[in-house]
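Troubleshooting log. The previous structure file for this entry was overwritten by mistake, so regenerating from the original sequence record. Sequence copied from the archived sheet and checked twice against the printout by T.R.
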Amino acid sequence: MQDQMWLAGVVNPEILDRLEADSLDSAFVAASVCPILEIRYDLFLDRTLWTGLAARLQGLFPSATLVGTIRMVCDGGLYPNQAFEKRALNWKRIIADIAPPQWIDLELSDMDANAPVLAMAKEHGIKVLGSRHDFKGVPLLEQLRTDVALAQKLGLQGFKIAAMSQVQGDCEALYQIARESQGSFEWFSAFAMGPTGQASRLFSFACGANISYASLGAAVAPGQITAQKMTLLFPRVSQAKSESEILNWL
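Regenerated output below.
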C-alpha cells in the first residue's frame, strides 16, 4: 500500500456554480477534502469559458492540485469525436493560460496524435497523466502491462486505468497492475466503474494505487462514491485484506 492516498474530486459546470456561490454548500465541503480537483473541460459546453477555469478554481482552493481533462465521447465524455483535431488547439489555449492546471490527462491511445500537446506540456512544466478507459470490461493484465510500459517509455508522470466492472470480483487485473507498478509513477490510479466496481475505488489503494476519483455532488461516472464517504473510509482501507471487506463498508 502507498504511504499517501490522494482523492480527486471531479468538477463540472453545476459543481463549479455551487462552489462559487456558497462556501457552506455540501459540494464546497466535499471539494475541501480533495487535494486534487479535476476540471472536466469537455462538460463545459461553452468553450469560451475554458480559459480562466483553472484560475477560478484555484482561487477557491489555493492548495489544491488541478488536473485538466478533455474527455471525448468515445472515452465517456462530451467532446465530439469528430473534433479531435481541434482538441490540440483547445489544449494549447488551456496550457498557455495565465493560470493553467498543474496536470493534464491525455488518453494513451492517442499519444501519437497528442505529441504536440505533450511537447507543450513539457515546455510549460505541466505534468501528464496517461489514461485508458474501457467501457466494455476489465482489460487483461498483459494489456495493462503494455499500457504501463508505454506510459513509462513516454516519460509520463502518471498512469490511470478506468475500466468497467461487469460482475463482482472481476477487478483482479487492476489490483495486480497496481501491485506491480507501485512507485513507478508519481500518480497511479486503477479502478473500475459501475456498481460492481465501487469497492475497487478504495481497495485499489490497498494494492498500491495512490489516486482515486470521487464525486462532489451527483456522480459524473458510473459507480462514483461521494468524497465525504470515501474520506470517512480512508482510515480503514489500510486494514482491508480483500475487496469483500470494502464491500461490507459501502
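Residues 6-249 form a domain with the TIM Barrel fold (CATH 3.20.20.70). Archived copy saved in two places this time.
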